[in-house]
Amino acid sequence: MKKFTAVSDVDNLQEIIKKALLIKENPLSEPDKGKGKTIGLVFLNSSLRTRLSSQIAAQNLGLNVLTLNAAQEAWNLEFADGAVMNGDTVEHIKDAIEVLNQYCDIIAVRCFAGMKNKEDDVNESILSQFEQHAKVPVISLESATRHPLQSLADCITITENRTGERKPKVVLTWAPHIKPIAQAVGNSFAEWMQEMEVDFVITNPEGYDLDRNFTKAVPVIHDQDEALKDADFVYVKNWSSFDDYAAMPEVKENWMLTNEKLEVTNDAKVMHCLPVRRNVELSDEVMDGENSIIYRQAKNRIFSAQAVFSEILDELN
Ligand code: CP
Fold it and tell me: Could you tell me one molecular function GO term of this UniProt entry (predicted)?
């Protein structure tokens, strides 16, 4: 694997899921694979899971880890090409990446959607600069339009929690939120589910359809109760409008996931990438209930990251 920014960077999804599950059985199976090599984890946005699971995964492989919480600890970055830097920005992203090239064998970056300019976000204006200027493999720790390490963890979680021979029905359901949230997790989950042996549907209110470049032919149902029928897995996530970019069109019905709503499912397991707004996106009873596999999903972030770092190291060694 030369880079990891989307499902298209994975040669064989089933193989990498298998690899991650083997790592889960024995996380220290390759303790020296990254010896003498350094991974830079660059966070332009906040994180709990991605930061810590990536650090654990890298340490399990013997990698040196540099974590830069750029928004808080680094110079104020300039992203515009040709900018006259006579304002608040102190260091151009191009220069920062060139320096990271000197220090790191792998660069991993988190760069959320700015949610102000649709074109910039759709075109991955920050991640693309890392891809352009990095001379080492680049890993996305969530970008404007995708969250691939989360999606791989989601695939691992569904694989190990599915039961029976039948293809599981997986429902991605929109949930309410108090502020506009990017579409990255929803887009990414939709992309990865289309590579899995599952029956996949998306449910969201009118006005909240995700970008068809990601959802393609996946059925989008605007009636949540209808979509949840017979579901084996329900993935809860908020996102703001894509068409009316970053807007929050009014939603009259209550879309918060509750135990009552789960009654029509096939005793569905509930997933969420976290962080979650309790009693806004889903109820306490769902979050703390026996069908929630949300903490297991969070644990699998370690094995998702470790499988990817290991594959990238195969290219470097
Ligand atoms: N799910 C996820 O990416 O969590 P963090 O934002 O805390 O890293």
Answer: amino acid binding
How far is Cα 142 from Cα 165, in angstroms, rounded to an integer? 33
Residue 230 is which amino acid? D
To the question of whether residue 111 is assigned a binding role by annotation, the answer is no
Which helix (H) or strand (E) segment holds residue 304: the answer is helix 294-316
Whose structure tokens read 């890392």? 130
Q: Rounded to an integer, what distance in angstroms lies between the CA atom of residue 50 and that of residue 44?
A: 12
Q: Which of 146, 274, 294 to mutate to test the pocket of ligand 1 (most atoms within 8 A of CB)?
A: 274
**In contact, 291 and 268? CB cutoff 8 Å:** yes
- Give pTM, 2 decimals: 0.98
| Ligand 1 site, CB within 6 A | 47-50, 142, 150, 273-275
pLDDT single digits (tens) 71-94: 888 899 999 999 999 999 999 999
Q: Is the peptide bond before 275 cis (omega within 30 degrees of 0)?
A: yes
* Max Cα distance, the chain (Å): 63
Q: Is 28 annotated as a binding residue?
A: no
Cα separation, 275 vs 273, in Å, equals 7
> Burial code of 129-151, b = ≥16 C-beta within 10 A, e = fewer?
bbbebbebbbbbbbbbbbbbbbb
**Residue 216 is labelled as binding a ligand:** no
Which token pair is 59?
A: 């340490």
* Tens digit of each residue's pLDDT (9 = 90 or more) over 237-261: 999 999 999 999 999 999 999 999 9
CB < 8 Å & 24+ apart, contacts of 73-81? 77/44, 79/125, 79/126, 79/129
